[in-house]
Amino acid sequence: MKYCVLAVCLVLGISLRDGWSVPLKSVLLTFPGDIIKDMTDIELADSYLKKFGYMETLERSGFQSMVSTAKALKRMQRQMGLEETGELDKSTLEAMKRPRCGVPDVANYQTFDGDLKWDHQDVTYRILNYSPDMESSLIDDAFARAFKVWSDVTPLTFTRLFDGTADIMISFGKANHGDPYPFDGKDGLLAHAYPPGEGMQGDAHFDDDEYWTLGTGPAVKTRYGNAEGAMCHFPFTFEGKSYSTCTTDGRSDNLPWCATTADYARDKKYGFCPSELLYTFGGNANGDACVFPFTFLGEEYDSCTTEGRSDGYRWCATTDNFDRDTKYGFCPSRDTAVIGGNSEGEPCHFPFVFLGKEYHSCTSEGRGDGKLWCGTTDSYDDDKKWGFCPDRGYSLFLVAAHEFGHALGLDHSSIREALMYPMYSYAEDFSLHEDDIEGIQYLYGPKTGPDPSPPQPDIPTTAPYPDPDETDATNEPTERPVTTTTRPVDPTKDACKLTKFDTITVIEGQLHFFSDGHYWKMSGSSEGGIKGPFSVSEKWPALPAVIDSAFEDLLTKKLYFFSGSRFWVYTGQSVLGPRSIEKLGLPNSIQKVEGALQRGKGKVLLFSGENFWRLDVKAQKIDKGYPKYTDVVFGGVPNDAHDVFQYKGNIYFCRDRFYWRMNSRRQVDRVGYVKYDLLECSDSSRTYY
């Protein structure tokens, strides 16, 4: 709740009388865009107690009656773990002002007593939109980790849907956002969720007037540059100066950038920060960057705008004329973007003038609450444009984990250390409290075995999915096989006891699993099953023990093997290599190829880190326009997959023990275990945790 914020008395001058300094008449300064709640402490308490259910009691007859304020205060104090005085004391008032969940503490619905819960264990969720505060992939990851908090201690699994109606529909919104419970602007109510059921029940809403981060300040994931999508490192040093935000210094194109290590001069690692000059999200422009100036309803705009929208989200046209082309996208928030005020999303402008004085950094001048703010033009006095400066923000992961607890049927806890305590607090080393575990296991029971981690998706694309077409065979030179010492094969070596494979690929229609100089084959037929182990050096003598990736060219039947920065090509018993992967046109910064995916017309996608390149197999070179981001083209899969391959018409992305299966519509339709689903290992080999 916000209480008496943003209206302050400024002492503009003094006069001398009888030798004493006395202030002149105070002037009440109201910032344009400020929401002022002129409430007394008693009014605040009355509103709080009613909003969160403390003033009502549900009688057996079904009629609600009001309780006394003193009794309501005691109920609230008991819930918050405060001393039960029944009085509006300092600690109680401070608790009422803290940011919190919007779900009532004394709800009209029941949880444990009524056993409101889902009647199935595979709960689905769908992310309807994104906040401009964070990259969509970071938001996806925060939600996936939040669901995993609960799947780690219950039999529940969580599957993401990209269309249709899911059990839990997740959305960001501001103020009146489509349900009977509006948000209240920055701070105060952070989010709310509904208990399990049909319709809106189970849904989770997040207040987009809040500043969403990972809880420790701006979470800035870079694009392009040479840091392969690494996070910005704040502070970093550039040309002897320390930077705690992205900067345009050193560039003539006005693109904000940051170093991804502490010292740019030493490491030369950098990437570009979120900017409408690089990309947009949502809309209908497929992520194209803004074009400035652009025309909208006959007016020309040189920056992102909220004109034409009632929800306050900033947007731009991605061509020079929206009236003609109707192409647009939403503008991502820069790390220096202000929060709230009347210039939401615009960056601070330094220096700016306030009451005739020039400011080169954020200030709390003119405010009584100590909050830092800035002007978003060169003169606040002239333009009255302002906003709050970015702070640590609220951890989307922690808030989401709390709200998803409600969506699963949990009410608030009175234990301060519990996740389901109604007040927000940041915990760097989060672990689920025993009270939370007891509550969720009361509803769904304890975990009976490992479940696959949920996907870490991004927005899926609707691009076509081509099948390989035949092209001319290649004529590559071959060399005599290299003779190496054959490593003995341990016949007792069990693939089902391995925790991870070096790589997985398909050769002659069979799945091959490689690990430490050995491989196993899985035919997938009814007479199949696991065969092996076999010796890599016996079958392919030139290869090292560790294989990072491999693929079979469907046109020539040649086998390509990658290990570190080298690759080999086998044609029958003849081998070419080892050769450097730079010969294929891959940059020297690539340490290894982690996946290979056949495409049409003799093309193969090579994956490394968060990127992939398209190889023209016949020409032995990388096509123009690459690399591309994996999570942009293949939405819904982990962008750090260590095995990528195609099998029976589906694409598999593997990470650790799990795989994400993508169908021909580029939708993740299954997340499962490599060993139990692909290798068909028995349940007795499962590792419980």
TrEMBL record:
Ca(2+) 4 binds at residues 502, 548. Ca(2+) 1 binds at residues 133, 208, 210. Ca(2+) 5 binds at residues 504, 550, 596, 644. SUPFAM superfamilies: Hemopexin-like domain, Kringle-like, Metalloproteases ('zincins'), catalytic domain, PGBD-like. Hemopexin repeats lie at residues 498-543, 544-588, 590-637. The keyword Protease applies. Residues 449-466 have a biased composition (Pro residues). One of its GO terms (molecular function) is zinc ion binding. It is found in: Secreted, Extracellular space, Extracellular matrix. One of its GO terms (biological process) is extracellular matrix organization. The active site is at 403. Residues 442-491 are annotated as: Disordered. Zn(2+) 1 binds at residues 177, 179, 192, 205. Residues 227-275, 285-333, 343-391 form the Fibronectin type-II domain. Ca(2+) 3 binds at residues 184-185, 189, 207, 210. Keywords: Calcium, Collagen degradation, Disulfide bond, Extracellular matrix, Glycoprotein, Hydrolase, Metal-binding, Metalloprotease, Protease, Repeat, Secreted, Signal, Zinc, Zymogen. The keyword Transcription does not apply. A motif (Cysteine switch) lies at residues 99-106. Its cofactor is Ca(2+); Zn(2+). Its EC number is 3.4.24.35. It comes from the Eukaryota. PANTHER family: MATRIX METALLOPROTEINASE, MATRIX METALLOPROTEINASE-9. Belongs to the peptidase M10A family. Exists as monomer or homodimer; disulfide-linked. Also exists as heterodimer with LCN2. Macrophages and transformed cell lines produce only the monomeric form. Interacts with ECM1. This is Matrix metalloproteinase-9. It comes from Lateolabrax japonicus. The lineage of its organism: Eukaryota, Metazoa, Chordata, Craniata, Vertebrata.
